[in-house]
Amino acid sequence: MESAAKSSSVKNVVVRVLLFGVFVLIVRFVYVVTVYGGPCNSGDFCLLPFPGEGLSVTSAGGGASAGSAAFVRVADGSTGATPALWTTREWRKAVDYYSAVFQDLLVDGFVSPTAKSLCVDTPTGHEVLALKEIGVLDAVGVAKKKAPPLVVAGGDLLHLPFRNGTFDFVFAGRSLDRSKRLAHLASEIVRTLKPDGFLAVLTASAGNAYSLHSLIDLFPSFWKLRFRKLDGPDSSSAIHEIVFQKQLDGDILAVDGKEAEDSSPSSSCSIPEHKLRLLESAEPLIKEEPLKPWIALKRNIKNIKYLPSMVDISFKPRYVYVDVGARSYGSSIGSWFRKQYPKQNHTFDIYAIEADPAFHDEYAAKKNVNLLPFAAWVRNETLAFEINHDPEQHDVEKEKGGRGMGRIRPVSRLSGGVSSGEVHSIHGFDFAKWLKRTVSESDFVVMKMDVEGTEFDLVPRLFETGAICLIDELFLECHYNRWQRCCPGERTPKYRKTYGECLKLFTSLRKSGVLVHQWW
Ligand SMILES: *[C@@H]1O[C@H](CO)[C@@H](O)[C@H](O)[C@H]1NC(C)=O
Ligand SMILES: *[C@@H]1O[C@H](CO)[C@@H](O)[C@H](O)[C@H]1NC(C)=O
Ligand SMILES: *[C@@H]1O[C@H](CO)[C@@H](O)[C@H](O)[C@H]1NC(C)=O
């Protein structure tokens, strides 16, 4: 009896242990399914083997990959253990997103299973794994920091650790959206891609013609093959995919183009259609001469349609502001450009051109402003100008003792003339030539010009040299014999041009595709 009782209690213990074991297995299974989103993803534990789950690949829909790549191979060809990170739900979701993008590129022939491929700026390597999974095995990523085995270190991404012409396919992902050194990054992509190779870019910008053209301009020797809208990774936002192909002799073409441009002394430039279209949205010019210009022109600034408020200005290699006739720092750079001009978070290089020595000292303390202490002129020569003490001067200059620069003119033509103020001698430089040296056509260039009548010399020179096409947006004060506030019925004797001549200047600028605004 005793032994029977003993054996039944042993049985009891065994049954309990077995039940406990089953319970543990069930709990573990439920845990794995909820945490990893599938029963087979956690490597060391798999109750119900699902074919095609996890890291192995189904060839369904892919066509071209023919179901061959059923495992992950890293760059050196080994089939190492799967890092735990790769099995998280976020990883799968991100990799699946890129797999879908690459499947389409594969079907359309932009990437092939044998293509040597690079993913730029991929800190995690999602894109690289996605490429490998669809059968593009020779794929590698580059990011600031390395993340082996998928991603190698590329530091600032401005010196990619690959030889010229290494890759058949480069996936730039969103790297251009993130880069602060666009032109440099673009040239590295161009350099590492083989001639005839393909480049795919994803971007949240490029939704309008202006921004798309800016992007295309970053790759001048490439053909644009495809542009389409995709769902973003989080499916709440849309993004655009652009596919380019590097021309066979792209490098040579680009060099030739540049040389031809530089060697021609005067070049007429054509303003593209999408820029002309923008002008239709600009505020209208004031056709009638205002009777109270000191009110009307100041009020007009409220109507101004700034270019960055109309279009996305992404994808410019550089953002530049040129203040011609800058006067004191606060008069337009500090009070208007820094505070009011919409910059879409871009940092602008600022050039202040101001010949009057009275203003030079304060610029020495402004580290982010390049001062050119000369007068913008049509050639390199010594000029004379007068310092006016004019009652009509702006408030800011009033604080400076009513100081304002009079019209400048070559010294030779001044002799014998009657002058009312102090006459100074200054250096004038060829402004149009300087502009062509300083900025390129793909840069975003905003200019304010307030040069006391010299605009009637400078603007024609800008047209003659083709430098006008470098300017994206121009704020121009045109000086004419305006009605005076002090003395009703009297025009200022300071300027001889009429309002009609000013209007002609503005109209010709707009007709040529320059987004010019009437400045006060
Ligand atoms: C690589 O390309 C860059 C410009 O694309 C060029 O300056 C450089 O000389 C090339 N290097 C080699 C080794 O060909
Ligand atoms: C500028 O940056 C701020 C914060 O970084 C952001 O909230 C804002 O949307 C950005 N503006 C533009 C136009 O990108
Ligand atoms: C302009 O002329 C001055 C002397 O007349 C000369 O020293 C200077 O180098 C010239 N500058 C340019 C850009 O030609």
TrEMBL record:
Domain called Methyltransferase type: residue spans: 142-200
Keyword Membrane among UniProt keywords: yes
SUPFAM superfamilies noted in UniProt: S-adenosyl-L-methionine-dependent methyltransferases
InterPro entries for the chain: DUF7870, Methyltransf_11, SAM-dependent_MTases_sf
Bilayer-crossing regions: 12-31
Domain of life (superkingdom): Eukaryota
UniProt KW keywords: Membrane, Transmembrane, Transmembrane helix
A Pfam family assignment: DUF7870
Domain DUF7870: 281-380, 427-520
Gene Ontology molecular functions: S-adenosylmethionine-dependent methyltransferase activity
Protein name, as recorded: LOW QUALITY PROTEIN: uncharacterized protein LOC103721505
Gene: LOC103721505
